Amino acid sequence: MSLSATPSPVIPELPKAADMLERVRSEAVELRSFTITFLSLLLYVAIIISSTTHEQILRIDPVKLPLLGVEIPIAGFYWFMPSFLFFLHLYILLQHYLFSQLAFRFRAAVEREKGEDTKNDLRRSLGNLPSCIGWRDSTAAL
Amino acid sequence: MKFLMTAIAVVSLIIWPVLTFWWLQAAFLPYHDNTIVWTQRAFLLLDAALPAYLWAKILDDEDDAGHWWKPWLTPFFYDLAKPVKAVLRWAIHWLNGQSWIAVWLRRLCPRRIIVWLRPVLGNGAYASIAQPNPVTLAVVLNRWLLSTFLLIALFFSFFVSTIPDSVEEQWLVEQIPASWIDNHKVKEYGVE
After folding, report:
1. Residues B8-45: tens digit of each pLDDT
2. Longest CA–CA separation in chain B, Å
3. Residues of chain A with C-beta less than 8 angstroms from the C-beta of B24
């Protein structure tokens, strides 16, 4: 058997920046929605906390949820809410972590491209991604 | 614009969530339930650990939280190691000045070991020149700010927002100098 017949190992090609562009954009949009939902929940909790009075705590009056109008026990709310917020915060930070790894791979792919014009075009093609790419790139330099 | 984006991200993902945990605790303190307060403290502690680990991983392109914290920790180790390094440099400088030791070492040790040790021990003539510290304030500032914020939040949760006459407040009162508390009472009752 000759050496030329031996199959050479297949080295997978690294993804090109242009191919990653759509995925980065769609994941950034999803992350923006998650983040806004999380911030809305924080605002909702802040409204409930600020509306809790000492008299309400003394009488053990239930907490009335804004907009929904549902009444829930005050002790249960303040006992349960930290755990609920913790898991949501964990989830949102994990989503940001996964996105940051994708953004790092995209940045590396842009750096592999030849020509400054191509690189600048790819960076500009990210477009208006308000909550993600801007801070991601700026903080990565720190 | 980059600063604004960074500020929005830091406020919405770190400062606001952590402060909400402390606010929940402080707002419900008048209920005087130690179990609920300790549950809130435990979750605040867990939540403060999240940015310390995950935020560092988010910002590190090597996917390593320790790598991100390293420039912040380096100055401590660098300063701690300074006196040890100074003594070592002096010893090496002195040893290099003793020609009989060099001759004895050359006779005793194989040449390969001497060559291998040279980069480690350095040259006595240049040993006293200190290496510049590559860590700058700009690099470590965000680590300082993040760790300071998280520690302040924990301090407020564990040492400020305590239930009156609880076990932890009694312990805290014992740690504080008595003169501080006496002065407080004098001012409170208007007795001079």
Report:
1. 888 999 999 999 999 999 999 999 998 999 999 999 99
2. 85
3. 45, 49, 78, 81-82, 85
Alpha-helical (H) ranges within B11-166 are 16-27, 34-50, 56-59, 65-97, 99-108, 111-121, 137-155
CB B22 within 8 A of CB A62: no
Chain B residues with CB under 8 Å of A47 CB are: none
Contact across the interface for B24 and A57, Cβ inside 8 Å: no
A33-62 per-position pLDDT tens digit? 999 999 999 999 999 999 999 999 999 999
List residues in chain B touching A: CB distance below 8 A: 1-3, 5-6, 8-9, 12-13, 16-17, 20-21, 23-24, 27-28, 30-31, 33, 36, 39-40, 43-44, 46-47, 50-51, 54-55, 57-59, 61, 63, 138-139, 142
